[in-house]
Amino acid sequence: MFRDRSRPARPTAPTWQEHLREFEVPVAVLAQPDPGRRVLVARQGVDDFLNQLDIAYYDDDRSIAVQVTTHRPLPGRLRITSDLHPPLLLADFLANASPHGPIELPDEPLRSTGHLVVDGVTVPADRLVRGDYMITSATVANTTIAVISTAELHDQAIRLRLESTDATAATPQPRPRPTASLQPNRRRTSPPCARAAAPAAWTSS
Fold first, then answer.
1. Cα–Cα separations (whole angstroms), residue 169 to 15, 21, 38, 92
2. End-to-end CA separation in angstroms for the chain
3. Which of these, 136, 85, 129, lies nearest to 107 by C-alpha position?
4. Which of 19, 98, 149, 190 has its CB surrounded by the most CB atoms within 10 Å?
5. What Å distances lie between residue 180 and 38, 56, 85, 119, 172, CA to CA?
6. Cα 65 to Cα 156: distance, rounded to the nearest angstrom
7. Range with the lowest mean pLDDT among 34-48, 64-78, 172-186?
8. Three-state secondary structure readout of the chain
9. Which of 45-49, 114-118, 187-191 is predicted least confidently?
């Protein structure tokens, strides 16, 4: 069989370093991820400007155990604004976190306060609680960081570190995941999964 070189090659998903370079500002990830969880990335952009990365940590049963989102504002040239809305982000998570369908929770979100620990620094944060699920969000520098998990995992999930292109070039790549979107121009792809290894590194399967 001969390959037709006149046809364009199959598009490939960005590597983790390519995600970081395009995002331009540091991205939050779990400080100590569970070595047994797969790590996948979803992207959101407006007019080809990447303004949100969702890092999802999956259990073996294909449920999302933890999601860490980093959102940055849109540039003024786009003449629109984009804010991260925790209730919508939590609803999006509950719609996609389980392979068995949306997680139905009758409770209305309860608002409280909490904190994130980012690179060892405690940052005051807002918190929404809905049933057994929590989202904690805070502004860090010029970005908004949000963490979603069950209450059982939340103390571990709020402990984060920031990654950027200044990190070691050997840092492997999490991969994008396909899910539904509540916001416009959200682009998702679905290459093979990656698996989290030692807490300080990513590894590819």
1. 11, 12, 21, 32
2. 29
3. 129
4. 149
5. 19, 14, 16, 31, 26
6. 11
7. 172-186
8. CCCCCCCCCCCCCCCHHHHHHHHCCCEEEECCCCCCCEEEEEEEEECCEEEEEEEEEECCCCCEEEEEEEECCCCHHHCCCCCCCHHHHHHHHHHHCCCCCCCCCCCCCEEEEEEEEECCEEEEEEEEEECCEEEEEEEECCEEEEEEEEHHHHHHHCEEEEECCCCCCCCCCCEECCCCCCCCCCCCCCCCCEEECCCCCEEEC
9. 187-191
The rounded distance, in Å, linking the Cα atoms of 33 and 156 is 9
Nearest-angstrom CA–CA distance, 74 and 85: 15
Q: What is the pLDDT of residues 96-109, one digit of tens each?
A: 999 999 999 877 88
Q: Mean pLDDT, the chain, as a whole number?
A: 79
DSSP bridge pairs for 80: none
Residue with tokens 């990190």: 167
Q: How many CA atoms lie within 13 A of 159 on its CB side?
A: 9
Give backbone dihedrals phi and psi of 156, rounded to 5 degrees, phi first: -80, -40
CA distance linking residue 91 with residue 60, whole number of Å: 22
Q: Does the pLDDT of residue 196 top 60, yes or no?
A: no
